[in-house]
Amino acid sequence: MAGTIEGHGGDLALAALRAYGITEMFTLSGGHVFPIYDAAHKADFPIYDVRHEQSAVFAAEAVAKLQRRPGLAVLTAGPGVTNGISGLTSAFFNASPVLVMGGRAPAFRWGSGSLQEIDHVPLVAPVTKYAATVGSTDAIPAEIGRALTAALTAHRGPAFLDLPLEVLFSSEDAEAPAGPDVPVIEADPDEVARAAALLATAARPVIIAGSDVWGGGAIDELRAAAEALQVPVFTNGMGRGALPPGHPLSFAKARRPALGDADVVAVIGTPLDFRLNFGEFDPAQVVHIVDAPSQRAGHVRAAVSPAGDLRRILAALADHTGERTDHAEWINGLRAAEDAGKARDAEAMAAESDPIKPARVYGELRKVLAPDAVTIGDGGDFVSYAGRYLEPARPGTWLDPGPYGCLGTGMGYAMGARVTYPDRQICVLMGDGAAGFSLMDVESLVRQDLPVVIVVGNNGIWGLEKHPMRAMYGYDVAADLQPGLRYDDVVRALGGAGETVEKSADLGPALGRAFDAGVPYLVNVLTDPADAYPRSSNLA
C-alpha cells in the first residue's frame, strides 16, 4: 500500500487509476458518474467525450493497444454500460487491458425501480477478466487495483467495475494501491527447447506472429529468434510491422506457398482461428506459442505449445544452440514467390479504371503515408484490401477490429490514436457500411480538436454479404446501401471537411489535401461495387 487517499468516490478512483498509469478517460456524460468527472476536473485530468458509448470503449482500447497500458472508459448506468458491451467484447478478443467503470443505480433502493436500474455484472462477466460491483466507498482503490491487475495479467483483457450511486458520491478515507504488480508466467523450459529444436531442424519452417507479440513487448525478441533460427516470418493483427517490409525474413505475399509447403508452422501470440484456417496446416507440425495456458488451442493437436511470457520464450529460441538445418533454399524460394506477388500487387495498385478499384486507393495511400502513421481499419470488404496492400513499416501502427470483427471501431480508435500520437498521421480506412456505425463521432473529433483523415471506400453495398449471397442463392437481400452517398457532406456538416473522388487520377491530390487539412477530413471514394475481395467463407 502507498498511503491514504481522502475524498469522495471519484477522488479515490482517480488516485488509484493514476497509480496504474492511466492518464485520460473517455466517456459520454451521465449523472451516475459525476464524482469521477469532478475529481478529473479538479486535477486537470483529460476527459474526452463521445456521442455513443461504444466509441468511448473503442477509444480506450486504442490507447491500451498502442501504449500497452490500461485504457479507461467511464460509462453511465444502464444503457450507458450496455451500449459499451460490443467494445468490451472486442477488447476481450483482442487481449486489450481496458477498464470500463460504470455507474449503477443506488444499492439502498435496489429493486424499487430507480432510473436505469439493472445488474450489469452478469451481462459483462463473459467478456471480461474481472467484473464486480464495488460495495463501499473505501473499497474503490483496492477494487480498481484488483481489476487492473487482472486486465494486465496474461492473457490480457478488459475488466469492469460498477459503482452504486451512494458509493461513488460518499466520502471516505482509503488506502491507495501501490501500482501494478503483474505476475510473470514462466513457460516449461522443456517445451520451449522442443519448439526451438523443431524450428531449427525443420526443412521448411514458418513463423506467424500476431498481436500478443506486440502487446507483450516481445518485438525485439521475435526478430532475434527469427534471425538466429533463420525462419521466414508472416504477421497478422498488431504483429504487422514486427519485421519491417525490407527485412530478408519478412514476408506477406508468399503466404499460400509457405503454408502449403511448410513442414513446421510456429504460430506465436495469436489464436488458431478462422484467420489461420483454424490451425489446419497438414501435413506440417504446429508449434503454438502463447502467453498463457488458457490460450492453447483445444481443437488442434500441436506438436508442442509453450505458454508463458513471450519475451522469455522468444529469447530462449534465439539462444538455441542445438542442431539446425540450412533454410537458405527455402527462404530463397519464398522470396521469389514474394517478389512475384509484389509485382502483381503493384500492377493492381496502379490500375486506371472507372469506377475506381480498391487496390488503386491503397496504391495512392502508400505514397503519402509516413512510416510512423497509424492506420485504422473499420470495415469488411474495403478493409480486407487494406490488409493485402498496406504493409506497416513499424510495429504498433496497425489497428483493426480483430477476430471479433465488430464494425464501428473507427472513430473511437481514431480518437485514442490521436490522443496517443498528437503529431503523427492518423488514417481511418472505412467501408461505407461501417461509416453508419460511428461517423457521428466526427463531431467529437472536431469539437476536441483531434484531426484525422478518413478514407471511405464507397461501393454502395455490403460487399462481404452481397456477393456471397448471390453466389449461394442467385439473389441477395438487405445488402444494398445508397450508391454515391456523400459521406463527405456529413463530415462537413459536423464541422470537418472532405470531398468525393470519382476518378483514379484525382485520388493522390485529394489525399494530399486531407493530410494537410488539420481537421477531420473525409475522402469519399466511389469504388467498383462489382469488385469483391476474394475469400472463402469465414462462417464455418
Structure overview:
Its cofactor is thiamine diphosphate. The protein is an alpha/beta fold. It folds into three domains: 2-173, Thiamin diphosphate (ThDP)-binding fold, Pyr/PP domains (Rossmann fold); 187-333, TPP-binding domain (Rossmann fold, 3-Layer(aba) Sandwich), CATH 3.40.50; 350-524, 3-Layer(aba) Sandwich (Rossmann fold), CATH 3.40.50. 39% of the residues lie in helices and 16% in strands. The protein has helices at 9-19, 34-42, 53-67, 79-83, 85-94, 121-124, 140-152, 165-169, 189-201, 211-215, 219-229, 255-261, 310-318, 328-349, 358-368, 381-389, 410-420, 432-438, 442-447, 463-473, 487-493, 507-516; strands at 4-8, 25-27, 47-49, 71-75, 98-104, 130-133, 159-164, 171-175, 205-209, 233-235, 264-268, 285-289, 374-378, 398-399, 426-431, 453-458, 497-501, 521-526. β6 (130-133), α7 (140-152) and β7 (159-164) form a beta-alpha-beta unit. α1 packs across α2 (34-42) and α1 (9-19) packs parallel to α7 (140-152). The radius of gyration is 24 Å and the shape is globular.
What integer is the average pLDDT? 95
At the fold tier of CATH, the topology name of the largest domain is Rossmann fold
- General shape: globular
Largest sheet: 6 strands, parallel
Radius of gyration over all CA atoms, rounded: 24 Å
- Count of helix runs: 22
The CATH architecture of the largest domain: 3-Layer(aba) Sandwich
Q: Strand-residue fraction? A: 15-25%
> Helical percent range?
25-40%
Mind telling me the CATH class of the largest domain? Alpha Beta
How many domains is the backbone divided into?
3
* Uncertain stretches: 536-540
Strand order of the largest sheet: 3-2-4-5-7-6
- Secondary structure: number of strands: 18
Distance between the termini: 50 Å
CATH superfamily of the largest domain: Thiamin diphosphate (ThDP)-binding fold, Pyr/PP domains
In terms of structural class, how would the helical and strand content be classed?
Answer: alpha/beta
Domain Thiamine pyrophosphate enzyme N-terminal TPP-binding: 9-121
Family: Belongs to the TPP enzyme family.
Cofactor: thiamine diphosphate
InterPro entries: DHS-like_NAD/FAD-binding_dom (IPR029035), THDP-binding (IPR029061), Thiamin_PyroP_enz_cen_dom (IPR012000), Thiamin_PyroP_enz_TPP-bd_dom (IPR012001), TPP_enz (IPR045229), TPP_enzyme_TPP-bd (IPR011766)
